[in-house]
Design goal:
This protein is mainly alpha-helical. It has helices spanning about 5-20, 25-40, 50-55, 60-75.
Amino acid sequence: MSASDEARELRLVNNVEFRLAQVAGESRLESELGKYIVPLMLKLLSPHAAVQRKVWLPEHRSLIKVNLGRGRQQKYAPIYGTG
């Protein structure tokens, strides 16, 4: 793999980050996450460490966790006891 492959992958990750940051509204965010989350997570398998780090930044994890958890907590009951 060449440096141009790494640059292309980093550009793709940056584009996804930009698109998610621009989303307004929870239903649209869920739609956009549904579209991009799997390809973004597949970039963790990239042979380039810089790409893996970019995907796994704490900001990305927080964005995904907060936005996925927001709507889902109310829709689904816990599958384990609380005691």
